[in-house]
Amino acid sequence: MRIRWRKVFTLTLTTFLVSLAFNLGSNSVLSFVPLTLSLVLLLFIILLGVIFDIVGVSATAGEEAPFHAMASNRLPGAKQAIWLVRNADSVSTFCNDLIGDVAGTLSGAVGVAIVLNLRHFSAGLSGTLANTFMVALIAALTVGGKSLGKNYAISKSTSILIIAGRLLYSLERIGIRFDSKTTSKNKKR
Known about the structure:
Order of helices and strands: HHHHHHH
Largest sheet: none
Structural class: mainly alpha
Number of strands: 0
Number of helices: 7
Shape: elongated
């Protein structure tokens, strides 16, 4: 197995930049929003990680055949869904590792910020207890959501991939280009 150092470096740098942007954005938002909106932001970040995990697992579990018929009928998103399946390794790395891990790390940081805000409102709140509870809650929601999502992703991969394909198709229509015409060397048949 040959290590593709350029790909590893690019993924590492992209993860750093995405994490930096998301963290700066969320910290900026957390500094002026009320506690309830902070909790909504936390749940959104966890949900985002779960959704991307579902797409990554669907790409890995998906089969090309159903999308070929859809593509021959010119169904929007079918070609993009084929691309997702053919490039399942890269899609899974992006969705599960890059976005999923950044969402996991970011949800922990947001959780700490929420605990710090809670301690300002309640001086008697134990920092250790609050941190422990927040970490446990984030972990439970993330793992539980991903566990539910994996079963759904495997059993409904075609439906999920056509939705993801339509989203990519829509993004391509407004000018955000994905290289959906190229295929992986390890394409599924």
